[in-house]
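Co-fold these.
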Amino acid sequence: MILGFFLRIIPYFLLILFIFFEFAPAYFSEKEIIKPYFTFMFLYALINNDSERFRPFWILLVGLFYDFLDGDVIGITSLFFLITLHLLKRKHSTIISIDFRIIWTNFILILFAYIFVNKFVKFILFDVSFELKRITLSFFISIILFPLFNSIVRKFKNRLSYINE
Amino acid sequence: MGYKSSFSRGINSGPLNRYILELTICITISLLFVLMSLSKSETVYNIKYLVVAASKPGLLVANKPFKLVSDFVQYFVGMGNYKTLNESLKKQNDFLKKEFNKVNLLEVENFRLKNLLKLQDVDYVQKLSARIIIDGYRNNNNSIYIDVGENKGLKINDLVFNENGLLGRVSQVGKYSSKILTIYSSDSVLPGISVDTKQSVFAKGDGDKLVLKHLENKFKLKHDELIISTDAAGFFKEGIIIGKIVKTLNDVYIQPIAKKSDSIFVNVLIFDFKKINLD
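Predicted complex below.
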């Protein structure tokens, strides 16, 4: 039971950890660093592999926490992931697939839409400079790293299912 | 047969509807936050401040690995610099070693040249400073008096000079004062040598100038060349400036550089002949 509890909270714990890892350098380093969207990748992989486990409430909390640390537009991450979750949960989902290439393509499109909307709103309403080079590099690194994250999460989910059974 | 509307299906109890309700509430909250942040609400800023403040320990812990990596990278960058610095120091060290060897060689050379010139640190000459007490210039006399005498070890023929050159020599010694015969006096004859043409000359005082004695062709001397003292007479110190050669159409003479009026202070060279090594 205790093991089950720990296994159940590990994804949330990892999510929080990824959020800290993603923002710690930004808070304590004077230099702008190029970092992949770790939290986005991990959360997307979690939802993609085990959408039934994630309740919208937790996504809201994680998304808000992420946005509070990230910057100006609060609620946009949770909004994106809530919509993604809903799309993944639909019976005849257009984005759910067994084929990893489709999953990957969906991830790229959703990440692109997220970055575009987030940065565009910041640029228009908050006068935050649009660092195209850094954002593009972060975007491509995230795309490259996503298969790794997805496979880790899938293996973790399979192991968890095996223990539960 | 009755059909349920889509609305009634949405509010039916069941896992899906609970999910829909939760999703709707969450999306509404998210949208609310988005709108509040777009309208730059104070509440959102306050919450943001609280969240960031509460997250600080976590952020600090999460930053540790990045700091370690950063330190590690900086250390290696520093190592690269140390290599450059080390190379630079090695070059500098080589250069200084060469310079040190040069200095050693020069020191040896200097020692050798000193031996060749028989220059050595002498202890038989003492330099004293004195003050002119009766000025021959004002008295229209070619003698001056200074405030040192036998009490300081002065003897007859000790040389008197100032910062410009030779002024004269001691002609009379009292206990506390001495009389100086200046080079302008007709009784003064100095041995000297011209610096450029290397002509040995004797300069005799003649009022405001020195005339050349015992020189067959004094026109060989160059105009404006320096005449310095030699030790030809035995009691003179060599190398003290006497004056400059002045050439006119029909005469050549020495114009002394040091004047009695230059300063009220003069120097006296006191020779202790007992200490001179005659070898």
